[in-house]
Design brief:
alpha+beta, binds pyridoxal-5'-phosphate, binds 2-OXO-4-methylpentanoic acid
C-alpha cells in the first residue's frame, strides 16, 4: 500500500477491499462469499438488533522479516467463537470454515498487512449475528458470519508505556453467572458508561471487580489483568471474565521462562503486593499499568513512577511479539503461516 503511514496507525476502523461472509439458512451453513460492501442488509426484527444475539472475535496477523504473514492462534479464536455461540444459543460456525474464511480475507486484503518494520499488524474481526426475525425472546433461525480486517497500531495510544487504570465500584461489567465468559456484545454495552467516565478522568481503562462481593479482581474493559511478584505471574480466575487467549499464551511463556504461575482469585488488597501489573489482550498486547486508583475507596496502588514498564512485563512482551512476528521460533504451535 502506497501513501500509508503505517507506524502512526492507531486502533480504529479502516476500510479495506473485501470481507468474507457466510449465511446459515434452511438449517445449514452455505458457501463462503466474497463481498466488497461495508454494509449488511437485514430484517428489522433480526435477533442481533433486539436481543443481542451476536458474538465476535479479535485476532491478529503479522508480517515477518521474511515477508510471510503469520496468524496468531487462529484455531483458539475459532473455538472461542463456538463457545460464545453455545453461550447465547447461536448456530455454531465450524472451526474449519472459520479458519478458511480468515485466511481468505487476509489474502484478499494482503496490501493492507502492515510491513514488518512498522510494528503494526492486521486486526481480524470475525462476527456472528442472528439475522432471522423474532419478536418473542428466542434464538434466530438464520445467521450471518462475516470476517473483515484492518491494519492497526496500538490500542492504547501510548503503546508499550504505562497508563493509569481505575476501579469504579458503582459499575459491573458482567454477572458471576452471566455472559462474562463469552465475547458477546452485551458485555461491551455494559462497559460503555464506566469506560467513558474513566476516559474523561484520564484513565485508559476500568478495572472491574467481581460483581457479587466486590472483593476480587475480574478484568479490565478490553483486556485481562495480571500482576507480577516474586517471579510469579498472577492472574484472576473468575466466572465473569473472558478467557483471554493472550493471557493463556503469556502463562505458557512465563512458565517457559521459569516463572511460577498462579491462576486464582486475586483480592483487591493484594494489588499492594505486586511489583508490576498489566492488561493483556489481542488489541492491548501487554499494556503495563502505571497505577490503579480505587476511586470510591480513595486508595492508590502504584507500579511505575516514570512511565517505564516493569522488567518482567517487558520480557514477556518481547517474547510474545517475537513469536508473533516470526523473529523467534514458535515452540508452542501458535502460528498459522498464510501460504
Ligand atoms: N477481556 C475482554 C473483555 C476482551 O474484550 C478481550 C479482548 O479480546 C480480552 C479480555 C483479551 O482476550 P484475547 O487475549 O483473547 O484477545
Ligand atoms: C480484542 O482485543 O480483540 C478485543 O476485542 C478488545 C476490544 C477491541 C473489544
Amino acid at each position: 500500500m502506497k501513501n500509508m503511514d503505517w507506524s502512526s496507525l492507531g486502533f480504529g476502523y479502516l476500510k479495506t477491499d473485501y470481507n468474507v461472509r457466510c449465511y446459515f439458512r434452511d438449517g445449514k451453513w452455505g458457501e463462503l462469499e466474497i463481498s466488497s460492501s461495508e454494509t449488511i442488509n437485514m430484517h428489522m426484527a433480526a435477533t442481533c438488533l433486539h436481543y443481542g444475539q451476536e458474538a465476535f472475535e479479535g485476532l491478529k496477523a503479522f508480517k515477518g522479516k521474511d515477508g510471510k504473514i503469520r496468524i496468531f492462534r487462529l484455531e483458539e479464536n475459532a473455538k472461542r467463537l463456538q463457545s460464545s455461540c453455545d453461550g447465547i444459543l447461536m448456530e455454531k460456525f465450524p472451526v474449519e470454515k472459520f479458519n478458511e474464511a480468515v485466511i481468505k480475507t487476509i489474502k484478499l486484503n494482503e496490501r493492507f498487512v502492515p510491513p514488518y518494520e512498522s510494528g503494526a499488524s492486521l486486526y481480524i474481526r470475525p462476527l456472528l449475528v442472528g439475522t432471522g426475525p423474532q419478536i418473542g425472546v428466542s434464538p434466530a433461525n438464520e445467521y450471518l458470519f462475516i470476517v473483515f480486517v484492518m491494519p492497526v497500531g496500538p490500542y492504547f495510544k501510548e503503546g508499550f508505556k504505562t497508563t493509569p487504570v481505575c476501579i469504579l465500584r458503582e459499575y459491573d461489567r458482567a454477572a458471576p453467572l452471566g455472559t462474562g465468559t463469552y465475547k458477546v456484545g452485551g458485555n461491551y454495552a455494559a462497559s460503555l458508561v464506566p469506560g467513558q467516565k474513566a476516559h474523561d478522568m484520564g484513565y485508559s481503562a476500568v478495572l472491574y471487580l467481581d460483581a457479587k462481593e466486590k472483593k476480587y479482581i475480574d478484568e479490565c474493559g478490553p483486556a485481562n489483568f495480571f500482576g507480577i511478584k516474586n517471579n510469579t505471574y498472577v492472574t484472576p480466575e473468575s466466572t465473569s471474565i473472558l478467557p483471554s487467549i493472550t493471557n493463556k499464551s503469556l502463562i505458557q511463556i512465563a512458565e517457559s521462562m521459569g516463572m511460577k504461575v498462579e491462576r486464582r482469585q486475586v483480592p483487591v488488597e493484594e494489588l499492594s503486593t505486586f511489583e508490576e501489573a498489566g492488561m493483556c489482550g489481542t488489541a492491548a498486547v501487554i499494556s503495563p499499568i502505571e497505577r490503579i486508583d480505587d476511586l470510591n475507596e480513595e486508595k492508590t496502588y502504584t507500579f511505575s513512577k516514570d512511565g517505564t514498564p516493569g522488567k518482567i512485563s517487558e520480557k514477556l512482551y518481547r517474547k510474545l511479539r517475537a513469536i508473533q512476528y516470526g523473529d523467534e521460533p514458535d515452540p508452542f504451535g501458535w502460528i498459522t503461516v498464510v501460504e
